[in-house]
TrEMBL record:
PANTHER family: PTHR33525, RIBONUCLEASE Y. It comes from the Bacteria. Coiled coil: none annotated. This is HDOD domain-containing protein. Residues 21-208 form the HDOD domain.
């Protein structure tokens, strides 16, 4: 089977909604659905977080980051951490755990290395999106961070499927992989119940132009992709903004803030 046929199979399956997730991904998806339930109370949320050690560790780490700990009062337990970061950020952390599980399921060492790179890229984009939103575009920073976490979900899915199709991710001058990834992203996004503003920004990201001044969630993601030092291993190209979008001093501050926030998200490595 040649690569074009493989992309066709994957895209057709995605378009039909015929995407099966590994058991570990399904487990986190169930957790996400439980937390998204409007009747999920604080005690139930705490119980769910405690049942997932990786999520518990990252919730405490995020609560102690400068973005959520302006008073420099350290937190050492999940209950206080959930209260501090709030439901929206808890859902973001669940989404990051969900994305991470895609990488955990990859066995091939070459694809595994790509998954590591993609995860690092994802963390950098998510943390930069949070800071750009707060300081420049003035969209909801938590929404921006969530969008950054899920913006490469189609790429993670392709990496997961690549083990079935040798050579799938080789050099792709005709860019069939991008078309396939876009189809997969839309279907996986639907399965993850992405909120409409997030879904719109993620689905429109490829090929979008940055507005001047940047004001939207899509602009925020474009900026975050541009300034993430780790590129996607699948070859996505960041847009080039007009000069003067952000001055050098402010940009350096944003990058430093994002690096500290990103460090709180990278508590778990692929095992």
């Amino acid at each position: 089977m040649n690569r074009l046929e493989a992309f066709g199979i994957i895209a057709a399956q995605a378009a039909r909604g015929d995407i099966s997730f590994p058991t570990s991904v399904n487990a986190v998806l169930r957790l996400q659905q439980a937390l998204n339930d409007p009747d999920c109370h604080l005690e139930e949320a705490i119980r769910l977080v405690l049942g997932e050690p990786q999520l518990a560790a990252r919730t405490v780490a995020l609560a102690n980051s400068s973005a959520f700990n302006a008073g420099n009062q350290p937190i050492t337990n999940v209950r206080a951490a959930v209260t501090r970061v709030g439901y929206r950020n808890l859902q973001m952390l669940v989404a990051s755990l969900l994305v991470r599980q895609f990488g955990n399921c990859i066995q091939d060492p070459v694809l595994r290395a790509k998954a590591e790179q993609l995860w690092e890229h994802t963390v950098q984009v998510a943390s930069l999106a949070h800071v750009f939103a707060r300081r420049l575009t003035f969209v909801n920073p938590d929404t921006a961070m969530f969008a950054g976490i899920v913006h490469e979900i189609g790429a993670f899915t392709l990496l997961l499927r690549a083990g079935e199709f040798p050579g799938l991710l080789d050099d792709d001058e005709e860019r069939w992989g991008e078309l396939c990834e876009d189809v997969v992203t839309r279907e996986v996004g639907r399965r993850l119940f992405l909120p409409e503003p997030v879904a719109h920004a993620v689905f429109e990201l490829r090929g979008a132009a940055l507005h001047t001044p940047p004001v939207s969630l899509l602009d925020t993601l474009l900026l975050a992709n541009l300034y993430a030092r780790m590129p996607s291993p699948l070859g996505a190209v960041a847009p080039v903004p007009d000069e003067g979008v952000v001055d050098a001093a402010t940009l350096q501050e944003i990058i430093l803030e994002a690096a500290e926030l990103g460090a709180s998200m990278e508590q778990v490595v692929l095992v």
